[in-house]
Amino acid sequence: MTDLIKLRGVDKYYGDYHALRDINLTIRAGEFFSLLGPSGCGKTTLLRVIAGFEGVSGGTVMISDKDMADVPPNQRPTNMVFQSYAIFPHLSVGENVAFGLRKSGLNKADKASAVEEALSMVGLAGYGKRAAHALSGGQRQRVALARALILKPKVLLLDEPLSALDKKMREHMQVELIRLQRAVGITFILVTHDQEEALVMSDRIAVMFAGEIGQLDDPETLYRRPNSRRVAEFIGKMNFLPGRVTATGDTITLDIAGFGVTDVPAVQAPEGATLGEAAIGIRPETLAILFDGEKASRHEAAAVVDEVVYYGDMTYYDVRVNNVPEPLTIAMKNMIGRPVLDVGAQTRIAWDERAIVVF
Amino acid sequence: MKLRVYAIAYLIFLYAPIILLPIFAFNDATIIAFPLSGFTTEWFAELTQNRALHAAVQNSLIIAVCTAVFATILGLCAARAGAMSDFPGKKGITGFIMLPLVLPEIIVAVALLVILRQVLGLSLGNWTIIMAHVLICTPFSIAILNGAFGALDPSMEEAALDLGESRWSAFRLVTLPLVMPGIISSMLISFTISLDEFIIAFFLTGSNPTMPVYIWGLLRFPKSLPVIMALGTILVALSVILLTIAEIFRRRGVRRAGGTDTGGFL
Ligand SMILES: Nc1ncnc2c1ncn2[C@@H]1O[C@H](COP(=O)(O)OP(=O)(O)OP(=O)(O)O)[C@@H](O)[C@H]1O
Ligand SMILES: [Mg+2]
Fold it and tell me: The ABC transporter domain covers which part of the protein (chain A) (predicted)?
């Protein structure tokens, strides 16, 4: 894949406020890229910098190896789906979608067929004559997509396009967007604060905190090997246990509170390991409750159930283990013949040193 | 119960004089007093004969139309600047622009008269009244258009820009149609204010009086009182119709831009 967008040392100030701090980022042609981060971390600002709605205070933005410093938004090969969708309420659906073709020089018939094609791409074939202000949220979102895609941009920028939709519609549109992106082959840059959405949809994800990129990786690496505690805490849920590093090198020797001594390879300490105190991260689904007669394949520990949250397909247990200060969360799939334990039940839990991350 | 009595008394106090206008406009007597003596349209007929009145009406219409156009253009610029961009001192400047709304008209009139006649040595005419009327109408225009722009999603214009339009055509194709109801409402209200305005016109009028000034002149002749009543009836009807249309457009504008109504002048 070739590099399409390059940001080098991009800084952005709003007055005294440092909204983007030295952003270095390369986005490849044809990939589904997500900007993920908590509210106010600068996702929208970064997207608007790429679109050209905000100038930069320092650094360069390159698209297809061309410096964008003096290129206004209407001449950039980018199109944007706004968070509010910004559907023009005084125009029909068809006129909205055709809006970007005004300067294209196409004749009426060609425009009409382009509009129809764009509308059917988003599943709204035949909606051209409808009034735009009478659409539902999901339909507006599709019109905004069609309106941007009709121009065949190199990059489609999407600012939290699904956040206004209800859960069912959102999940449906996630799948639709992935399908659409594969079909058109356009680079998508999606802004979201929903980590699940980012994991489901993206080829790569940049996690942002307070104007900086904390980690940029594919979803699996991001989830399994978060490079810092704040990324680990933001993406999914992670238990943290106090522990000590007693030996470093290709393998790291750990003494984990309540779990005892174990060795892990150095890759499981993404920030590097130093002798002394460390935080040991374990995801809830890599721990397991051992029911009657089950044996742990690696290690086990005694525990007492502290809290039970039943989700239907899953049950989340908070359990207390001796010498571990905080309760540990364990996610268990509910299966036939597997009981749901009560609060206060004595049990054993299984853990695996291959699943832990050392910070 | 008591409250209702007050409310009714208040409404009578407020509207009785206006209701008396059409009553006496159709009354067949030159004296404005009860009992009524019979129905006539004579006074309205007399209106159509009066050359001087026609000239005054024509003057007033020219002034009102020019005022409506200029005040609305100024209001449009101010409201747009206020809605779209942040600049240093924005709050202070907005305050100053809205000041004429609460300034006594007599002060504005006297100040303008002094400046135009004494300081600049210019002669008075319709254009001096237009200038003064623009001054007092612009705050109303800004208030109406602020509502229209405030209800407008700022990403609308950005979306047009993003789709390849220039700044000007993005404004023309998207923003302008969306605030058009506000513009029409602003023009109608400015027109009505200018048409009815007396004090400034009285001070700044040249040799050709405006309609309110002409009416004031007629008051010296008791015989012409019923004619004034007839004229007043027409003016009240016209004002009510124009303001109603203006309010309809203002509400439609807020709705079209997707906002919730936060109240207007009516
Ligand atoms: N025009 C502006 N003027 C001043 N500060 C701004 C401006 N736009 C954004 N900011 C500030 O910059 C920071 C980043 O804003 P941004 O909109 O990029 O956040 P975000 O990550 O998109 O958040 P959200 O998830 O809430 O949309 C915020 O603290 C915001 O207050
Ligand atoms: Mg945002």
Answer: 5-235
